[in-house]
């Protein structure tokens, strides 16, 4: 892997983390002293993706603007890596008129036709629309692909299996990416899943499956590259599972009392680890790291500022956009 | 191809069953627009188990008429994704009763994406499904359920009662930029293997035309009492209206044709004229279409009514299997006639 690609993976991971930290800050800023989920500039459930940056960065590095992505309820890392406009995405999270969905969607319902990005708050249900996007691309004779992201909890939903079978049967250019962060809210994977490796489920549908261990962004990049190339070449779907990390709670306000792995979590943070690695390999320097962070911070703060300055939707227009 | 906006008064003498009219509408749109595909269980060689896609496979081939596995969530969601990317899929859910296994794709995805995207994404898809009972198919294969779909925002719902509207509404549904749930009644399809009303065969213009979605039709004009109804029940109501001439009662029949959007104007105009309202609905009675129609009149002006509203609907019970039991709960001619008498002799 060349140094430019590695530096780019690092840059993307830092941008995502910087973004999630900023949302974390602003989400909680006006919910004190007693946490009230419906209060503040950013109300509602908030599922942040810190720790899962390697998945989004490694997979989306292979995608072009015309490729489609569907993400689940935890979508920010994937949206950023897919190139969704940061300002309009942030405005949507702040519920503003200039947001991607004019404030009608919110953080779990981001739709960006420009980058063919969407997400859904219903576990597992983002897979079928990705099949349809892949179907349309194939019909049009394009070499675009669709990538459906889902948590490991989604791999036990019926719709996951319906989707794998249909994608395999119709040889659709889809890549299924299971983000195994060990937890589905409070339920550990071992308590929900009858099989050790979700990628093995690919075997049941006659398609290739691969699991990447250890939240390793370079391994994600390489494995996803093969899957995307297969799909582009008309060779059909692939199922990937990536062992990643939920650095924070399931959603903000989650006390995580159920979590027995908290002690080891900070040591598993993929960003300092990759940074050290790239420093040692002389891909990065202290200076370039500082610069990457500064640039990320400037971009993120600009997006947040844009959101805060954006108009709040007019309540008398709440019934609009039901029909085209 | 020329597009006629409203269904030409069927001057044609050519008569088709509702099923053949639907197929003709689909085929004409498939000819016109390569983005129209048909997806569902047994829509190919079988031609749809209620003949809604008969002959399409032979004409358009397996790339455009595609049988699916029994994976309703996957293939309905696939339709949504394809529609988002600009195709115009017609996806068949074999029976409306089966929505339970795939409703999330229908009401949380197909119907909400346009709204959640602030109008930036459209989902021009048709979800075609079979509704209704009357042939002893039991509690899981006989329901109408259109009130359930119509209750949930973001999808149009059309419910044709006759062949000409069935074709025009299908063409309108395909061309519409919104998701449209197209619900045909099995008993109104004119199938050779099911008892049928002669009204399930009727004149259908040969050219492509649109029947506007959201406009009801006055299927029969009358002065004394208004029956507001939809789908197969329109046929029963027209039969009753003809019977009642002998009793000196002049019945007006309003065929809603579409539930979303709902043509409130036509309902109110008719009730203002007759002062008496009967709602006939083959869906469950409570929390549904019949209550909605009554509410429209109550909200507008209860003084329009000279007598209380009558509802003829399925009492809140699952559809029974035994013929006599099913007949006892369906809104058949006897029950409609009794309601007309109650209202006009009171
Ligand atoms: C169909 C459905 N069931 C339950 C939920 C509630 N819920 C939201 S996220 C979640 C856990 C999902 O776990 P996983 O798929 O592993 O993703 P993660 O949250 O770990 O990223 C649950 C149960 C839901 N949104 N949708």
CATH architecture of chain A: 3-Layer(aba) Sandwich
CATH class division of the largest domain in chain B = Alpha Beta
- The CATH architecture of the largest domain in chain B can be named as 3-Layer(aba) Sandwich
CATH fold title of chain A: Rossmann fold
Sheet with most strands: strand arrangement of chain A: 2-3-1-4-5-9-8
**Largest beta-sheet characterization of chain B:** 7 strands, mixed
Give an overview of the whole structure.
The complex is a heterodimer of chains A (324) and B (346). Chain A has helices spanning 3-29, 53-60, 76-82, 86-93, 127-139, 158-169, 217-232, 270-280, 286-309; strands at residues 68-71, 111-112, 117-119, 146-151, 174-180, 183-184, 187-188, 209-212, 238-243. Chain A has 324 residues and is of the alpha/beta class. In chain A, helix 1 (3-29) packs across helix 3 (76-82), helix 2 (53-60) packs parallel to helix 7 and helix 4 crosses helix 9 (286-309). Chain A is globular and about 50 Å long. The model of chain A has no long low-confidence stretch (mean pLDDT 97). By secondary structure, chain B is α/β, with parallel strands linked by helices. In chain B, 35% of the residues lie in helices and 19% in strands. Chain B is built from 12 helices and 14 strands. In chain B, helix 1 (18-32) runs parallel beside helix 7 (163-175), helix 3 (72-84) runs parallel beside helix 4 and helix 8 packs across helix 12 (333-345). The model of chain B is unreliable at 1-6 (pLDDT under 50). Chain A binds chain B through residues 68, 99-106, 109, 111-113, 116, 118, 120, 122, 125, 127-137, 139, 146, 158-159, 162-163, 165-166, 169, 320-324, and chain B through 37, 68-69, 71-87, 89, 104-105, 108-109, 112-122, 153-154, 156, 177-178. Bound molecules: thiamine diphosphate. Thiamine diphosphate binds at residues 73-74, 121-123, 151-154, 181, 183-185, 246, 250 of chain A.
